[in-house]
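Notes, Module 5: Reading structure tokens.

Key idea: the token line is not a picture. It is a compressed description, and you learn to read it the same way you learned to read a sequence, by spotting repeated patterns. We will look at two proteins. The first is printed below with its tokens.
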Amino acid sequence: MKIHEYQAKDILGKYGVAVQRGIVADTVEEAVAAAKTMQTDGVEQFVVKAQIHAGGRGKGGGVIFCPTIDDVQGKAEAILGMQLVTPQTGAEGQLVRKVLVTAAEDIAHEYYVGVTLDRAKSMNVIMASSEGGVEIEEVAATNPEKIVKVWVEPGMGLMPFQAREVAFRLGFEGKAFKQSVKFITELYKAFEAEDASIAEINP
């Protein structure tokens, strides 16, 4: 079952996974109200994100930075109702019926992390890369050495040392190392508890 970003964040949040705050909107008015609500909590700049069942939304113009609430209104008007075409939708695209309004974050570096079933080994595998923000398939094809893979023994679950191994191989240190270990552990917990086929964060 495919789910929207806002739905995935609700699920991940139940398991303690750190997720960016956002408010979903069906109309332009709701998007503006969402931005105003977030502004009262100290958010100064925003991102309006189309909610469709496909990746690559930014490349198709479905993820837009909005410095002001007026920008949120204009961009929500542009995105809601558009037929968004991305590398994953095909030429026909998908109709945007909802947007997610989030805080704009200062990004120091983007990473990828995912959990899925390796059918060849009949084991769950954690995959992570310091090359987040691009398609993981592209990284696998051009720079496979930049993908960290750790397999989880059936019946044993993710061991603490395995989460630490992933974080270490990604180059994290200090506080960031501890945060990434927790993030990986909670993501794996969500993957198993929800009986997912894949759970991934990119970036």
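Here is the second protein, with the sequence above and the tokens below, as before.
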Amino acid sequence: HSPKRFKGVAILTMIDPAAAAEELRRAVTELGLVAAVTRQHVRDKNLDDPSFDVLWAEAERLNVPVCVHG
């Protein structure tokens, strides 16, 4: 246990980018998590697909990083 060193991050499912953005908002504002992690692609889309813009905008608004795990 070391709350100054270890912080929680949200694991986001990106099948529904709008829902992922809502979950990121909840995770940061209600649960106090400090970042998010997601996979490198979703079904047939890479993370640069415009459908994910809603999530990137929310992460920017919240000033939190999104980590990508392969």
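Summary for the second protein:
- The mean pLDDT is 94.
- The two ends are 28 Å apart (CA to CA).
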